[in-house]
Write a structure and sequence with these properties.
By secondary structure, the protein is α/β, with parallel strands linked by helices. It has two domains: 140 residues, no CATH class; 129 residues, no CATH class. It has ten helices and six strands. It binds zinc ion.
Length: 283
């Protein structure tokens, strides 16, 4: 019990320091949940449709079915511009799709479907460039220079778009439920979790060595208004994380204990249930 008290006071003193926002010259920024998954999915699909439109226009431009000669410039210019627009739509669409999957993760019971769902952006990006590459290579009328440059540009775009669209940190519904079960807000050692812009792991301690070199650290504070009723772990997962940092987990196991954490959470839930029952009985 005494140990728990020191943890709390330590967290209070860190909180005070954080109010100044700089700690060791580094910024700690309050994190927010990402919000709506459906809106992001719709946005992604709309952008992907545009990506296909730009690809078709680029194919027609190579086949000289669309005449861009009125622009009075090298015929390669409109083709490259169309490919860039295609790429931008693929990248932004895939980012939205990946964010949606971290807000509303799919079950990993079926591994194949889970992979396909998480990598829809990658599949769309492939479909948004590979037909263009094949048709350009097969085109017998286009001049050699146009064919070569357009093909290379499309391959580069495919590689960049593919790397951006690939889900490097997949999160499943099962993973989310498990982490919410262990690291409930009530048992967080500092009442917060921390993560960085592109990091896939969230941290339970602000002074974790893995955060030492981060310019900007996001903090999700338990029970805060900024969390909009969500748990700290939820906020971290929505912001692109998919697991807890191993160093922090080890420290947490030593200081709190995973069993103790589960017990605390069960007590908390039993208390809540009893309160609800009492309220019902009073009615
Ligand atoms: Zn850590």
């Amino acid at each position: 019990m005494a140990e728990k008290k020191t943890t709390v006071s330590a967290s209070e003193s860190t909180r005070k320091k954080k109010a100044v926002t700089t700690e060791g010259g580094k910024n700690t920024v309050t994190a927010k949940p990402k919000g709506n998954a459906t809106g992001r999915r719709i946005g992604a699909v709309i952008l992907w449709v545009f990506a296909f439109v730009f690809e078709i226009l680029a194919i027609l431009a190579v086949a000289q079915k669309i005449d861009f000669s009125f622009l009075q410039m090298n015929p390669l210019v409109p083709i490259i511009i169309l490919l860039v627009l295609d790429l931008i739509c693929c990248i932004i669409g895939s980012m939205l799709w990946k964010q949606a999957n971290h807000i509303d993760p799919a079950s990993e019971k079926n591994k194949t479907l889970f992979w396909i769902w998480n990598n829809m952006g990658l599949i769309v990006t492939a479909a948004a460039f590979i037909p263009f590459i094949i048709l350009t290579l097969l085109n017998k009328n286009a001049d050699k220079n146009t064919k070569t440059v357009a093909t290379i540009a499309a391959i580069v775009a495919l590689l960049i778009g593919g790397a951006c669209a690939y889900e490097w940190n997949p999160l499943s519904a099962e993973q989310k439920a498990e982490q919410e079960g262990i690291f409930a807000d009530k048992v967080l050692p500092e009442g917060s979790v921390y993560f960085t812009e592109y990091g896939s792991k969230y941290h339970l301690y602000r002074n974790c060595s893995h955060l030492n070199n981060s310019e900007k650290v996001y903090e999700a504070i338990a029970g805060s208004e900024s969390n909009e009723g969500k748990s700290c772990v939820d906020v971290a997962l929505e912001n692109g994380c998919n697991d807890v940092c191993k160093t922090c987990k080890k420290k947490f196991e030593e200081e709190v204990g995973l069993d103790a954490a589960e017990k605390l959470k069960a007590e908390e839930e039993a208390k809540k249930k009893a309160e609800e029952e009492a309220a019902q009985a009073a009615e």
